[in-house]
Design brief:
232 residues, Outer membrane lipoprotein wza fold like, wza like fold, 3-stranded antiparallel beta sheet, 28% strand
Amino acid sequence: MESSIADTNMANKKPTSTYRIQSKDELYIKVNSLNPKTYDFFNGGVSNSNLGTNNNDISLYLNSYTVNDSGFIQLPVVGKVEIKGLTINEAAARLEESLQRFLTEVSVTVKLSGFNITLLGEVKHPGRHTAYVSQMNVLEALALAGDMTPYGNRQKVFLIREEKGKEQIYFLNLLDRNLIHSNNFNLLPNDIIYVEPLDAKTWGFETFPYNIIFSSLTTFIALMALILQLKK
């Protein structure tokens, strides 16, 4: 994929753009209509009353639909419905249209089952993290990874995001108070955050070549002692 780099240390930007569904997204879909016995079938046999009490992380995942690589989900009876590239509201409208042949006065609620973020570099717990929220900012994402390590450079944080089939790379300065007005302060699902190490880490306490320095110093002292001895 193509990539480009942009700077986000600018104020007065609009909030982040509306998220569009991607392949491998997990979607929670809740169907309502005038006939509960019918719409329960589309909710995996779970009534709406039970859906309201069983929405823990595991049940939310198990009752979710996965968007396949081609951008479709598989609904019972209805079959494949393409929703990749749609917003959440657009996906709900398309599903309602598909279900109108089977249900009366149907309404559909669509939500992301999990907000997936990958954090790499100088964070305490690098890897892929999932939060069951509808929105997350970069500071909240770092909290998921236990914050930065002492070597994390808060002025050099990279945000990698796929936009229209291209990988975009943005620079974030967490010490810039204007960051909260940035277009990328709020994250999108599947974003990648990379925290660059401080320059000092290269010659930090753990990595500084003390043995080489001490060895050279010892050799120098011995050489000077020999020279002084020869001059006597």
